[in-house]
């Protein structure tokens, strides 16, 4: 890639007709490669309301939307991700570059954002960090797929308004379902394509609205559903956990909406167990 840029720079300088593009490319050559980005941000000036409610839309009179796309250096992307959360209610970032060399971090502030998406942002650290024992009652959608998070975001248990949590395509090794005990309205939990060796439930958890749970493409050898109270669970992906033979506590009566498991699938199903739950 750097060879290609060098050629563009040379040609540009030779003919002197590339204007701003050449300056941009030369700037990039000095400060490293360029990464594609695209983001949308909605700011809302009137921040007197506190908690998010189903059906919320930023009022037109007091909100404005920014949408930008381009190619930026790592530093420029970092600056984009450090947007001011005080007046922002929605921030959606995505990139289609290979972001192995981006090393980003994000700290979520209390009761500001309603929706945060950071897709393929080179995110290595994510924290939900605010003082005291306050919980967050605004963040309804936290989607950070295709990053390099090795641990679940610190403070996750303080998010009480979550409807969707997407941590797929990261490097997580364990997940404790009880961390979502206060997120009683959560509908989707997406954890596929991590390195999960454990998906734990230490005490009874009731998530009445959870209808989609994806823990496929991980490294689970054991799974225990005994303490799950998930009456609306309908879409349950657990394929591609190659050593998984059974799910303790699973039965059709407890999870009536789940259609069952593929007997010829990508797990190591104990066929006797499988027949007893299908
Ligand atoms: C970013 O760069 C790629 C090639 O490296 C180019 O195809 C694309 O059009 C650029 N995007 C923008 C928004 O400038
Ligand atoms: C962030 O936005 C708030 C509200 O608009 C403003 O008061 C504050 O000064 C901003 N902070 C920074 C660092 O720009
Ligand atoms: C397979 O499952 C059955 C029924 O749950 C159990 O009795 C048996 O021990 C299991 N076999 C192996 C090899 O784990």
Word description of this protein:
Residues 1-16 form the signal peptide. InterPro entries: Leu-rich_rpt, Leu-rich_rpt_4, Leu-rich_rpt_typical-subtyp, LRR_dom_sf, LRR_domain-containing. The chain contains four helices and 15 strands. With 278 residues, the protein is of the alpha/beta class. It has a single domain (57-276), classed as Leucine-rich repeat, LRR (right-handed beta-alpha superhelix) (Alpha-Beta Horseshoe). α1 packs antiparallel against α2 (19-31). It is globular. Residues 1-23 have low confidence and may be disordered. Residues 270, 272-273, 276 line the site of one 2-acetamido-2-deoxy-beta-D-glucopyranose. The site of one 2-acetamido-2-deoxy-beta-D-glucopyranose has 4 residues, from β2.
Shape: globular
Would you report the number of β strands?
15
User: What low-confidence regions span 5 or more consecutive residues with pLDDT below 50?
Assistant: 1-23
Count of helical regions: 4
The amount of helix comes to 10-25%
Order of helices and strands: HHEEHEEEEEEEEEEEEEH
Biggest sheet architecture: 9 strands, mixed
Structural class: alpha/beta
Radius of gyration: 22 Å
Organism: Anopheles sinensis
Keywords: Leucine-rich repeat, Repeat, Signal
Signal peptide: 1-16
InterPro entries: Leu-rich_rpt, Leu-rich_rpt_4, Leu-rich_rpt_typical-subtyp, LRR_dom_sf, LRR_domain-containing
Please outline what is shown here.
By secondary structure, this protein is of the alpha/beta class. Helices cover 15% and strands 24% of the residues. The longest helix is centred in the N-terminal third of the chain and has 14 residues, at 2-15.
């Amino acid at each position: 890639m750097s060879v290609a840029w060098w050629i563009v720079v040379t040609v540009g300088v030779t003919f002197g007709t590339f204007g701003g593009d050449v300056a941009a490319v030369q700037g990039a050559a000095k400060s490293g490669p360029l990464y594609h980005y695209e983001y949308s941000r909605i700011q809302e000036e009137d921040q007197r309301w506190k908690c998010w409610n189903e059906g919320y839309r930023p009022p037109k009179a007091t909100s404005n939307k920014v949408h930008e796309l381009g190619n930026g250096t790592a530093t420029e992307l970092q600056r984009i991700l450090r947007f001011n959360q005080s007046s922002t209610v929605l921030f959606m970032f995505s990139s289609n570059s290979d972001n192995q060399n981006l090393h980003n971090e994000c700290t979520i502030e209390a009761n500001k954002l309603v929706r945060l998406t950071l897709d393929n942002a080179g995110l290595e650290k994510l924290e939900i960090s605010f003082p005291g024992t306050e919980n967050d009652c605004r963040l309804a959608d936290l989607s950070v797929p295709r990053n390099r998070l090795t641990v679940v975001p610190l403070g996750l248990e303080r998010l009480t308004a979550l409807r969707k949590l997407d941590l797929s395509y990261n490097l997580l090794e364990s997940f404790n379902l009880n961390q979502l005990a206060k997120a009683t309205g959560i509908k989707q939990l997406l954890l596929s394509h991590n390195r999960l060796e454990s998906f734990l439930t230490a005490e009874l958890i009731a998530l009445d609205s959870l209808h989609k749970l994806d823990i496929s493409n991980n490294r689970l050898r054991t799974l225990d559903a005994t303490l799950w109270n998930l009456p609306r669970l309908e879409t349950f992906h657990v394929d591609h956990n190659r050593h998984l033979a059974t799910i303790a506590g699973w039965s059709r009566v407890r999870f009536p909406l789940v259609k069952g498991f593929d007997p010829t699938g990508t797990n190591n199903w104990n066929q006797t167990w499988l027949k007893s739950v299908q």
